[in-house]
Records
---
Amino acid sequence: FTGIEGVDHDHGIHAFSFGPDGRLYFNFGNDSKQLADKYGQAIKDANTGLPIKTGVPAFRQGMAMRCNVDGSQVEVLAHNFRNPYEITVDAFGSLWQSDNDDDGNFATRINYVMEGGNYGFRDEITGANWRERRVGMHEEIPKRHWHQNDPGVVPNLLYTGAGSPTGICMYEEKLLPAVFQNQMLHCEALKNVVRAYPVAQNGAGYEAEIVNLMKSENQWFRPSDVAVAPDGSIFVSDWYDPGVGGHNMGDAGRGRIFRVAPKAGNYTVKPLDLSTPPAAVAALASSNNPTFFQAWQKVASFGDQAEPYLAELWNGEDQRLRGKALWLLSRLPASTKIYLEEAIADANDDIVITAIRVAKQLDPGHLINYLKKVPKDASNQVKREVAIALRYSGTMEAAELWSELALAYQGKDRWYLAALEIGADMHPDLYFNTLLRKGWERMNSQGGKDLVRSIDAKESLPLLYEMMIDPQTSQEDIARFARAFHFKSASTKNAYLEQLLKVEHPQQKFIRSYAIQQFPPNYINRNTGLKNLIRQILPTIEGSEAWLIAVDNMDLRNEAPLVLEQFLSGEDHLSKKAGEILFKMGQERLIESAFLKARQAEKNDYVDKLSRVGHIGANRLLRSWIEKRNLDPQLEIQIVNAIGNDINGQRMLLKMLQTGKIKDHLKTGAALKIAGSWDSKVRTEASKFLDDVKSKRGKPLPPIAKLRRKTGNIELGEEVFGTYCASCHQVNGEGIVFGPDLSEIGDKLPKQALYTAIIYPSAGINFGYEGYLLTMKDGTIYNGYIISETEDQVVLKMMGGVSQTIDRSQITAQKAMENSLMTAGLHQVMEENELINLVEYLSNLKDETIVSTD
């Protein structure tokens, strides 16, 4: 266990927090396959007894975990985060954490971590990336990013926009102003700010706002951690750098530490006295982690001698000190039951919640007895904790109690629903069937529908089916219910999906479309009756995504002319899917015939659509057109750019240059297109064809230190962005989704860092955009970054924004690329003023919204 933190700094363990239960809490960072391979199989989850692992490689999900201080009894507390940095624990044992989004998607989030929770970074079943299209996905990017429409996903506490969140702590002191007391303090390196997120109860969960504690206009202020000092002031560490993220530091030689406190008084720290039980108990009040750690250990070692002094805290008015005392009082063998029963009956919700958590850890054999003593009219906050505590039980008593909690759910509190989902997820059939046996007649209520949709019990399937075919069900709810089928594991699921294809319904087109998308391809091809049924209904859903999926899965080549129509006129994602299918069917002649008959303007659109397909056959077809056809010169230039969007096309263009099989007016454009290839061999060879371009600038670039002091023209810079960058990046919705969204890049990177990113792109590779090479059995090579990966398929995002679904059985090698996918040498094909204008434009792309008060 020791040494995990040293394997991968950015995606491993950033820091441990010491909890009031005497245990260590930490995040196991995302993309941690290296960590899982090295350590995961050697560590068993204390609750399940199974080896800890991140699942199939696609999942690469972050996890919140805890263990004893010696590394034993490791538990997974919650999972499916993207890249959580640090976790903090309050006096009641509540967990709080930040999680970083995919860059530029304004979905950085603050989480209240519910034990057992799924936090929705990837599809829980397939590991698919959030960008992959799915039934019923949310319109808002932050909620789509975290799969907030999926059953079983815990709500987010707060969205904080684009960001690079770092250290976090809990401030349970009195020195700072009241708004910061008993709240999280958190560093946001991208926004150059240290914040608090004051929370308020909201049903079974919370809501929060943003209040700045420390904000700088200097973009080099990069707060990396915040900690409470022994006197109640705080320290903030600043790594002081021009940029954040991507493993790249522009200034490794300087850093700063700030102390934040009221103006009056000097910083003085008294020697820590732990020599006697009353002194050690008094030190428990500190939020300074080393002080609290030492005090906790000493109080625990005193045993019964500390009880009178802990009891004073327990009987006091400060609820947080009462919570800290309860954790230690309950460890006294003779007193465990006494204090827990007293706490379960307490008038304060936080104390009752603490008692439930203590009982789970210290007296699990009697847990159900404590839970049964919680009043039926308890708040949803308390009921949330009871539901979660039932997760591992699996007894009839637990099922009865869970069903009582479920009957109280009214369909309005998503936090409460998430707690019920967690409580039932280890024993769904027992818990759900117990609910049904109680004469449950709430299927027409929103609460009932939510539970049917969310609980993966066999008996939920016929109810979900009935909800789908109800004539009163809206199209929006049909999509929600259809998505729920994706998460049902019962063997009868496909039989119900087949029945959905036969129902008469006002929304039958949507029902059929959604049902078809749920069938595994192999299942359709093994079932002759189902194949015939799908053939019959295809005309009723023609042109839809489901229609294309069915044509593809069943290899219906007679539908190729209709697929071509979809390719030419469908929405972007449907056009791309149709193009993939056409090339899989070997329909190059059909495509070429339509192209040759098209008008000139249509030909341009045609080439643009082909450039997004991502199939090597598209490159071969495009190459044949510029080699064998006499086309408009501008259209031929467009074709060259389309071919050069992936590594196979770049190598194709290089071979055309080397063999002279390319027209003279296309040579320079082709060489420019491949000059930035990640493949060093292609780059080197391309440079031989760029002498004219190299002489364009006439002199080398000045050093970055001089460039960053120059002022450019924003409007001209926007034009440069459109020429060189929009093929891979978006700004405010314009451009291609391949690399990170740059709509607020000026907040993240000042000019020096922007120049560095352009000139030396491989010096820092953004997390989630690491490139891979996939070599196929036929010799084809694909390169891009993986956005989805299952046991059967890999979905690769390639240059130009093209996504390619690849059959894993056809892959002979999968290798991580050492260099960035961002075009290298881009600055070499620009004039100096173009580069300066581009950086001026990018540095002014900032978040103009005001999200808090100082």
---
Amino acid sequence: MLAALSDLGGADDELISAAIGTPIDLADALDGVPLIARGADGWHVAHGLWRSAPGIALHPGERDHIRRCAVENLTQRGRHDEAFSLVQRAELWDAAPTVLRSACLAPDRLVPTHLRRWLADSPEPVRASTPGRLAVGIYSNFTSPAGAHGPLEEAWARATVEDDLEVEMAAIAHRAILAWWEQDLATATRVVPRVFELELTGHPLARAMGSIGRALLADLDGDDGTVVAELGGIEASVLDTVWEVCAGWLCGVAHLDLGDAAATQQIVDRLTSLGNPTMQHMVDGLQRRAWWRQGLVDEVMSDLPAVIADYERAATSYSRHLFFTVAAIFSAYVGDPATGRRYLDDALRSAPPSDDDRVSAIEATGTAALELAEGREVEAVATLRQAAGQWGLDQGQDRRAWRQVLALSYVLLPETRKHWDSLALRGYLRIARELAGAVVALRERQGDQRLLTLDVPSPGMVRAALPYPFAAELAVGLAAVGRSEGRVLLEALGPAGRAAVRAASTRAGSSEAKPARALLAAVPAPPPRPTYLAVLGPLEVWRDGFHGEEVVDQHLRRRRLHELVAFLVGHRRATRSAIIGALWPDLDERAAVNNLSVTLNHLLRVLEPWRDSGEPAYLLRLDGQTVQLVTGEHLHLDVDSFDEHSALAASAEADGTPSLALEHHLAVTDLYRDDLHADLPEAAWFALDREHYRARFVSAAVRAGHLLLTRGDIEPAEGLAHRALAVDEWAEEAYTVLVGAALARRDRSGANRLLVRCLDALSDLGVEPSPTTLQLHRRLHPT
């Protein structure tokens, strides 16, 4: 037993028992034997000295038998890398095909890097064996699919002759994956009939592949119900993760075609848990399609570039073709046709070869969506009509393309409405049809009554179901009949939707013009660029963040504009009378109202120079007698950042994380350029705020200075202390930072001078020194 353990390089009870042919408890058998390492998992390893110990050498025949039994045991247990290592070390190459066969039939435990090493280390007869050809084909499938055809075909043919059902099914499964990815119908016509034959044997993988075969045939016929039924009935853990992702993807898109995005989401969650990195792009693509059908448009568009990058890196040409076209449609729907064109161009470059020059249905729907987004509705109509004439509407696999853009064909092709109206649609598809019908009614000037009773979904669902020009038409119609959803929808549509409504408002003779103008006047447009107001110091205005692009405007030289900004920063929302009382208390009412109106107009020009005349402001809301400064994503104030970092610093101090606290204290000191509204004289209505920010700056600078000293950063600590004293000449703690910095430099005389200055300042105020200051005094004057 000890000789076998030494020769094998280690074993557990099961392995050593199989190798020797008798049950052995290693812990008991090796009790008291020195130079044995024992693992927590029951694995025992004998020191190398035992191999040279007299009396335990194995005879060659005995050693060969033990090693073969060990290889067999490791293979049966799925420990293929250990089994192959033993094969290689013992040169038992006739056993290598058995190890390869077992590994290839257990693909969930197959590591591509192991497979590469095994094949590289194997002699040619091993690679030429049937399991060897299967292994070469599977590895090529992982790394360079174009090279997998030949080996897999060889393995399939040989296994058929050798009546090895397991290997044949594995070869067929991997060959079918290639056919799937490459849309190779010729191979599919050979694979599917053989799969159906093998299914009669009752083999689990054959049954699963049979279900997939029937699902694929049903998909060709456009029968989503059968696709879902066949794929949903596959036994768990029968397919390897590659085929499970492929089957899950097909089942997921079939659910989408049935209008059931929630079922697709469940499939995505299951596929994600498989953790197959080589197929993750397909799962992520399916996730975005499901999110879109659930109205999560902004989330999809935010993630889209990263998902596209993953497809470019890992996907097959056919997968790229499909998803890039869908991405082009997404971009067109939200009003970004330039990006959509790039995606569609990439899709066309990845398109599978075709026997004719006709544009496929999915390419046609993507092109039409982009044409509409570019304002070329006539061309979009022609593109859709030609595709419907060539391929039919909502037929076979092309149904997926038509259902993705259901509203597009419903609105632009009147001849398609009878078909769509005849279907019992669910979920997203039903919503798309209802909304498209409302757009048609508006265009035919019969929309008022329909819009009054229309069940309007969330803005996200409207944006997912309707291209933005149609959604803009719907927003105008809803607002015209007094429904608030029109204003909410226009806000959600963003700049593209607003541009569409603006175009409608200027269209001569259009019945939409007047309600479009009214809607534009009711809904402020989000600014195209963020604005930053810096008021901790002289007033500064920047676009695209602090130190992005400074705004230079003659109105910024007006003191009254500075005062108005100061008042609104302190109050954010105020009445006109409150503003007048603070800024023009000595003027009569008429003059004061006029001054406020003029100053508000100046501030509006500074904040939103791009705003069209007649449209409401976004950042400065004027609602009757109320004036509101709207801060947040589009208008950021340095005082808000100051407050945020102050709160985060306090939280970090409470949590005992001084390094994080230091980051936030330093951010506070960076934001403080000077007194709040430094270019304005003291005024009662902001005096307390000015003092408030002074005190918090001094506190942050002093605390940051102490923390910097503890890590040896003397100069920046001194700089902060001097800044604190410039704001508050009696800031005792700032002196302690300077004294501490001098002591860190071993400058006792300098430290003493600073301490005397501090004590003199405190004496002038009649204030006793703090314990910290007294401790520094004792340190400098120990006697």
---
Amino acid sequence: MANALLELQQLGQSPWHDNIHRALLTSGALERMVRDGDITGLTSNPTIFEQAIAQHADYDEALATLVAAGRKADAIVDALIVEDIQAAADVFLPVWTRTKRADGYVSIEVSPTLAHDTAGTVREAKRLWRAVNRPNLMVKIPATPEGIPAIEETIAGGMNVNVTLIFSLQRYDEVMEAYLGGLTRRLEAGMRVDRIASVASFFVSRVDTIVDKQLDERIGGTSGEQRALLERLRGKAAIAQAKLAYQAFRDKFGGDRFSMLAREGARPQRPLWASTSTKNPSYPDVYYVEALIGPETVNTMPPATLAAYKDHGHPENRLDFGMDRARAVLAQLAHAGIGMDAVTAQLEREGVAAFAASYQALVDVVATRREALRIGARSDVRLGTAERSVALARTTLATHDVAARLWRKDPTLWKPNVAGAQADIARRLAWLDAPSTPSAILEDLAAFAADVRATGITHALLCGAGSAVLAPEALHRALGVAKGGLELSVLDAVDPTAVLAAATRSDVARTLYVLSSPSGALGDLDAAFRFLWQRARAKVGPKAGAQFVAIAPPGTALERLAQEHGFRRVVQDPSEVAARFTALSLPGLLPAALMGHDLPKLLERAHRMATACSSAVPPAHNPGLALGAILGALHRAGRDKLTLVVPDKLTAFAGWLEQLVAESTGKEGNGLVPVTNEPVGPPSLYGKDRLIVHFRLGAKQDRAMAALARAGHPVIAIKLTDGYDLGGEFVRWQVAVAIAGHLLEINPFDQPNVQEATSETQRLLDEHPTRDALPPPPLVLAPGTPEFAAKLGSHLAAARGRRYVAVTAFVAATPRRERLLRDIRVAI
């Protein structure tokens, strides 16, 4: 069977490959294409590299090495591109040698950000020429007005140049003149001109994209013969321009000026047809390739177009024919009010902007991957036999584009067939935006905290329930109170003993009472507020409102309460996220500001983690997705006890994490059971249902964790540099829980059992208005009674074979009681 690509070469046209990625090089695929004679050169551009590095795992090892060496994102981009171009140039070197330097070139692009900087383009071209250091390299320079003198300068300097982004015939003439000018300068300086090659990349299909659109706009208002004429012009402008460009090439390089240079061995600057893939699906897939075949030309084709032409192309010299028709097409377009000068000027602007945007996107992708690798270097994941199932889970996440859908806030990730649930989920995903909280909000919170301190207030009492206070408590325990900040006490408002203790801990006149309710409901806060309000009124009188602040959504009961009582301020939190996801929203940030913490620093760590968790990072290196895959896959394998091992400074963070995991995943008969404050024991004490996560602020528990890993227990060690890293961990674990929810097919953002318990409690209270009338619980174990030990023993015996035992202790927390409860857990 004939190879159409080989036939192209026999007609004088070189097929080049418009694509590059590392797997193409390392797999030997590119070498096979060259060996088979399918291609004789290769081009690249920022868009190609952006897609390659973002979509292929083949760069992971090189990225990790460069990140470990401390390279910045732009330097990593440069190194990766240079490595690929060098490898590709080596593959094509035999073609370059066999054709005596006529073919076998590989192109690298000067940064498009320099498209309007002549001197910068020349400097960068020289740097790339030295960095790649291959004789068959071509440096790509755009044909902008500022690029034209750079082309002449680099040709005069002895470099091979691929002039890119040529759209107009006028600009093409300037490009040819710049090439001839550069050769002439070399010759006049006594230097050789026979070792220089250049191509002029004339972009094709994009011309029709714009012209066809303008034709369609005009066709809508015409009829009859005029309509038919305009319809016949569709898909004709690009080929007509290219044919006239080829004629200009023939004239320019067939003239006396080039003849003199040719006698010294100079080569003509071949036209290269770029953008020859078909954009309009109504045109044949090899439409532009077929039309633009002729001697001394190059056609650079993306993989799909190259494969299509090899399969069903019909090579024939068509460029030398139809010049009169080409001129007629452009004349008819002008008569219809479509000026090619305006079209090509627009294409040049858009082309430069698109390549610059792709280059910036490439740098951004690498910066994101770099951040993920830097964060990954702080984690040590030892999964043992579970690695295969976790790898399958990561593949599932990648296949279903889960990361991108998460950041798009796509509610169908969790309940694809439940419309009501989707609407609710969509409202609850604002936590994804928290790391990007505007600086103006942070400055406002810091200013408010300073104003509070200026009035002589020295203490803050944060009053809330459960999740509303756990994140601030975690920051307080990990970071303490900054110099000049308010000493913070955290109060769980549902515990009467805790309310009484907290109320007497500081002087009322020097205390700011912060009432926090992410839902805005008063239920859990009502009794505590009334008690605290009475004390404040008794101490400071009518100005008691100045001692109170509320954090609540607008239009809620708590906001109305605050307004009625003249609170110092109501901090409106408009997000509708569940309380456990508010660590980096206003309910978490205001207490942190009052303690004097550096909010920009906290959110900078959060933003870095969010960046690393973005869709640009594949699941294997994405901290949130990788952790979510572990949680989901190990749950399926029966390891549903998430055991948290933390240093003392992070015990409150473990409490926040316990609430996040338990309340988000414990539903529909599914879920992860977080285990906190458990003394670390020898491996033999742990069953096969454990996943152990160790948060490190030192090496204290490393040996115990290593022993557990050697015994086959999956262990994840996460190193924190300081308490501000909690900003990142809030993000990592929120993302991971969301991903685990997807894998477990549950909605991690609702809380049906919380509502069920609330409703059931209210029912009991309504049915039994007096305390004495409440029904007794199924089993009461009263310590100190003779039957206590026997009842406890039989109760635990009945639990044999079950997945776990829970001890719910309704006691005021003290260090002694905490130790006692830990001892009871170990004994059980």
